[in-house]
Design brief:
Elements lengths: L4 H7 L3 H10 L4 H5 L10 H16 L5 E5 L7 E5 L2 E5 L12 E2 L5 E5 L2 E5 L2 E5 L2 E13 L6 E10 L14 H6 L1 H5 L16 H24 L5 E2 L2 E2 L4 H4 E6 L6 H12 L4 H11 E4 L10 E3 H7 L1 H21 L4 H7 L2 E2 L5 E3 H7 L3 E4 L2 H11 L1 H6 L4 E3 L6 H7 L2 H11 L20 H26 L8 E6 L8 H17 L8 E6 L7 H18 L8 E6 L4 H7 L5 E4 L11 H7 L3 E4 L5 H8 L5 E2 L4 H10 L3 H7 L1 H12 L11 H9 L5 H19 L2 H13 L6 H13 L26 E2 L1
Parallel strand pairs: 1-9, 12-13, 12-25, 13-17, 17-18, 19-20, 19-22, 20-21, 22-23, 23-24
Antiparallel strand pairs: 2-3, 4-8, 5-8, 6-7, 8-9, 10-11, 14-16, 15-16
Helix pairs in contact: 1-17, 4-31, 9-10, 9-12, 11-12, 19-30, 20-21, 20-27, 20-29, 26-27
Catalytic activity: [(1->4)-alpha-D-glucosyl](n) + phosphate = [(1->4)-alpha-D-glucosyl](n-1) + alpha-D-glucose 1-phosphate
GO molecular function: glycogen phosphorylase activity; pyridoxal phosphate binding
Function: Allosteric enzyme that catalyzes the rate-limiting step in glycogen catabolism, the phosphorolytic cleavage of glycogen to produce glucose-1-phosphate, and plays a central role in maintaining cellular and organismal glucose homeostasis.
Length: about 775
């Protein structure tokens, strides 16, 4: 979520008043804002997407709740020591959190372990361990519409009789100390992005948030006029009409068997009715096609932790496979491919398959990604129910990612086209009329320059490095991952360095290359990539021949509040994942909206950005998805590129020989070995096209006016990438709710005037 103060002031229309009031107290609002900790309760893009979605849902007046876990320790703080990433605990609650309100009156029990009893009265899950879920509510204000929604985060608490109700007359002290075991559930965020680690505590976290949330939703449904009770028993027929639950990836997939357990075991609904209601309630968003990221939980772990849920999953699978067999008799391979249970070695539950079978809608997050989901990853399922599969291209909130972080540009735009664009970003197309307006072009360039100077001062203060603000700010910020190819950027840096050294007198367009992002603590290759970038920076930044032509900076501890500083100051945005690997990306959209130009592959939402702005207004290079597929068919041989491209060979030889690590010459042998013999993401295959494309970038940068015009064309085409548009599509195509642009009257005005229809239903 990042910081809340400035976002709240903007959405409430109070920023100027607060700035003024604080100024009159002899304080500086910006200094005050810098004191607030980021709430970093997720990894990379998936967590930030949820935050943008909450802002849009409130702004569109949807009755929506965001549910998650109130981690005591969020994503780790990254320190760079001697070029290596070092993790520190993110103790973000150290000074308290003024935005949250604990709601102990809504505390709920969550059960683990135990066993299943089948009796005359039905099935019971007994002898369980209980953990309490304590909700904390954070307000989510809409933009200037007097709507405030809720983000409800659950914290784990041990019940007071924890370990004391057993016949354990013994160690009272130890029993109280053991309360920590229960409360560890919400202690810390697992820091993996696009990677599945099958740890028991993680599965506990996933079920914890799901079980608490579903009880909360059902309590609210029963309290509403729709949960009409006939002789104490609730009628759930209208449940899917009143409740929509969106699964943000497979992490909350246990919600499907959990809702079935509630309906069948507790509410005594017949299976078929329960299943129909469940399917109509859930929808699933897929966020990745990388096989190592797909959640596949071992059956024995689920059996130990959630025995009843395993039985329910088996039953869901049996009925699912019976249906497939009736359609495709004797096609055993299809049954194997489509089963929720993977046999062979340790039996595992494929959580994506569970989500597809248990949902009425499945979507990818960019056109190209949704196509890959349909035609490759879940092909069998899409052939069975093509109408279930949709696309919902991701978006970003223009409130945080333009108004808040780039007030200069936001104001310039408002002067030209009015202020309405903040709620309807498609109006940015009106800027096309001003591409040839020389004054406007100069103003846009001036705002960018001011942002660059401000960021350069920040870098000087934080890193003690002198930055040339007229150099091109070439920025690559995102989680460190092989598929995102920070290594390819690094090879380009080395190539530029070698060219400068070879011919110091030749004209060179000065660059400041800024790379930032966290590596998962257990991801060895990602950590080596960070070390390599820092080793290269060490050499480049201290070579007198290079001077201020080329500077390399690794941005420590990249996070939302740092993104808000670097993105408005960026000239060139690096979006260079191997085609077919980045589901969407959202940083790409933030840079586009803030007047940076994009160098990128035809991957994720880059494809649609090129479609909106015109391919000639982005620097598109490299293999397309078809080329990657073809290269896989032929067999990718890195050696061929190394032999054919002298500049690539030189760069690799320097890494290999210890040119960048003289004290430890074979420090990067693992990296080089990977690039030659098991590079799944084909860095060498795109290197030549990338370097050539970068030459075009430098050429255009020399013509400041042409560059700025292209930036304006990009801003004018960024309207599609508002999360408001994304959420309207979810609302209409999946949740069946209508956004309302009704402005709720403020609390100081009488309400009776606004007794109009508000949209039915709730989205969780």
């Amino acid at each position: 979520m990042g910081r809340t103060l400035q976002n709240t002031m903007i959405n409430l229309g109070l920023q100027n008043a607060c700035d003024e009031a604080v100024y009159q107290l002899g304080l500086d609002m910006e200094e005050l804002e810098e004191i607030e900790e980021d709430a970093g309760l997720g990894n990379g893009g998936l967590g930030r997407l949820a935050a943008c979605f909450l802002d849009s849902m409130a702004t569109l007046g949807l009755a929506a709740y965001g549910y998650g876990i109130r981690y005591e320790y969020g994503i780790f703080n990254q320190k760079i020591r001697d070029g290596w990433q070092v993790e520190e605990a993110d103790d973000w609650l150290r000074h308290g959190n003024p935005w949250e309100k604990a709601r102990p009156e809504y505390m709920l029990p969550v059960h683990f372990y135990g066993r299943v009893e089948h009796g005359a009265t039905g099935t019971k899950w007994v002898d369980t361990q209980v953990v309490l879920a304590l909700p904390y509510d954070t307000p989510v204000p809409g933009y200037m519409n007097n709507t405030v929604n809720t983000m409800r985060l659950w914290s784990a608490r041990a019940p007071n009789d924890f370990n004391l109700r057993d016949f354990n007359v013994g160690d009272y002290i130890q029993a109280v100390l053991d309360r920590n075991l229960a409360e560890n559930i919400s202690r810390v965020l697992y820091p993996n992005d696009n990677f599945f680690e099958g740890k028991e505590l993680r599965l506990k976290q996933e079920y914890f948030v799901v079980a608490a949330t579903l009880q909360d939703i059902i309590r609210r449904f029963k309290a509403s006029k729709f949960g009409s009770t006939e002789s104490v028993r609730t009628v759930f027929d209208s449940f899917p009409d009143q409740v929509a639950i969106q699964l943000n990836d497979t992490h909350p997939a246990m919600a499907i068997p959990e809702l079935m357990r509630i309906f069948v075991d507790i509410e005594k609904l017949p299976w078929n009715k329960a299943w129909d209601i469940t399917k109509r309630t859930f929808a699933y968003t897929n966020h990745t096609v990388l096989p190592e990221a797909l959640e596949r939980w071992p059956v024995d772990l689920v059996e130990k932790l959630l025995p009843r849920h395993l039985q329910i999953i088996y039953e869901i699978n049996q009925r699912h496979l019976d249906h497939i067999a009736s359609l495709f008799p004797h096609d055993v391979d299809r049954l194997r491919r489509m089963s929720l249970i993977e046999e062979g070695g340790t039996k595992r539950i494929n959580m994506a398959h569970l989500c597809i079978v248990g949902s009425h809608a499945v979507n990818g997050v960019a056109k190209i990604h949704s196509e890959i989901v349909k035609t490759q990853v879940f092909k069998d399922f899409a052939e069975l129910e093509p109408e279930k599969f949709q696309n919902k291209t991701n978006g970003i909130t223009p409130r945080r990612w333009l108004l808040l972080c780039n007030p200069g540009l936001a104001e310039l735009i408002a002067e030209k086209i009015g202020e309405d664009y903040v709620r309807d970003l498609s109006q940015l197309t009106k800027l096309q009329e001003f591409v040839e307006d020389d004054l406007f072009v100069r103003e846009v360039a001036k705002v960018k320059q001011e942002n660059k100077v401000k960021f350069a001062l920040y870098l000087e203060k934080e890193y003690k490095v002198k930055i040339n603000p007229s150099s091109m700010f070439d920025v690559h910020v995102k989680r460190i991952h092989e598929y995102k190819r920070q290594l390819m950027n690094c090879l380009h840096i080395i190539t530029m360095y070698n060219r400068i050294r070879k011919d110091p007198a030749k004209l060179f367009v000065p660059r400041t290359v800024i790379i930032g992002g966290k590596a998962a603590p257990g991801y060895h290759m990602a950590k080596m990539i960070i070390k390599l970038i820092n080793a290269v920076a060490q050499v480049v930044n201290n070579d007198p021949v290079v001077g201020n032509k080329l500077k390399v900076i690794f941005l420590e501890n990249y996070r939302v509040s740092l993104a808000e500083k670097v993105i408005p100051a960026t000239d060139l945005s690096e979006q260079i994942s191997t085609a077919g690997t980045e589901a969407s990306g959202t940083g790409n959209m933030k840079f586009m909206l803030n007047g940076a130009l994009t160098i990128g592959t035809m991957d994720g939402a880059n494809v649609e950005m090129a479609e909106e702005a015109g391919e000639e207004n982005l620097f598109i290079f490299g293999m397309r998805v078809e080329d990657v597929t073809e290269l896989d068919r032929e067999g990718y041989n890195a050696q061929v590129y190394y032999d054919r491209l002298p500049e690539l060979k030189q760069a690799i030889d320097q890494i290999k020989s210890g040119f960048f690590s003289p004290k430890e010459p074979d420090l990067f042998k693992d990296v080089v070995n990977m690039l030659f013999y098991h590079d799944r993401f084909k860095v060498f295959a795109d290197y030549e096209a990338y370097v050539k494309c970068q030459e075009k970038v430098s050429e255009l940068y020399l013509n400041s006016k042409a560059w700025t015009k292209m930036a304006i064309r990009n801003i004018a085409a960024a309207g599609k990438f508002s999360s408001d548009r994304t959420i309207k599509e979810y609302a209409r195509d999946i949740w069946d709710v209508e956004p309302s642009d009704l402005k709720i009257p403020p609390p100081n005005e009488p309400r009776d005037a606004v007794e109009e229809k508000t949209p039915n239903g709730t989205v969780a």
